[in-house]
């Protein structure tokens, strides 16, 4: 069964067990999906409401985009675990001969890159939630402001959590140019997420 099809109880119990996955990467994707859901919630609670006629189109755009991100991040939960499994499979390859050792090293490096790129994709998707949450809080139904604020915090957590998983895998990759480029992208996403979350929270200072 895919993780997105589990009940909340099943997924939390599996995460709490001694199974190596799901771990921080998959749960970061889940946090992002929840952040997207909350941004969509604010928009949907605004659509059709009196006194918000002027932002109907914007709310519909937010809801549709957030829903797309939510669905994608739920799928990323499984992809993150699959990437981890690929690393484990590569490490289990035989290493008795020089040829086997070379093949194993190559397979590990390839799998490690995959294990870094999957959470980077999670971070990028989660980061794209933050502008949606900001517009939802700024323009949407004031009765749902707290939902939008929590959505922004969940999105920021998803970005930072996913980036931790990128960086831990980069430490095992020997391609220096690749590592440098990935670290640059990580740093940009981290800075954006922290700044964007602060901008959303500042829209309701009495609550933040």
Architecture overview:
This protein is an all-alpha fold. Helices cover 76% and strands 0% of the residues. It contains 7 helices and no strands. The chain has helices spanning 8-16, 24-44, 56-91, 98-127, 129-139, 145-170, 176-201. The two termini are 38 Å apart.
Question: How many distinct beta strands?
Answer: 0
Coarse shape = elongated
| Proportion of beta-strand residues | under 5%
- How many helix segments? 7
- Average pLDDT, rounded to a whole number, is 96
Uncertain residue ranges: none
| Element pattern in H and E | HHHHHHH
Our measurement of the CA-to-CA distance between the termini, rounded to an integer number of angstroms, reads: 38 Å
CATH class: Mainly Alpha
Radius of gyration: 20 Å
- Largest beta-sheet details: none
Q: Helicity range of the residues?
A: over 70%
Q: Give the CATH H-level superfamily.
A: Formiminotetrahydrofolate cyclodeaminase monomer, up-and-down helical bundle
The assigned CATH architecture is Up-down Bundle
CATH topology: Four Helix Bundle (Hemerythrin (Met), subunit A)
Structural class: mainly alpha
Number of domains: 1
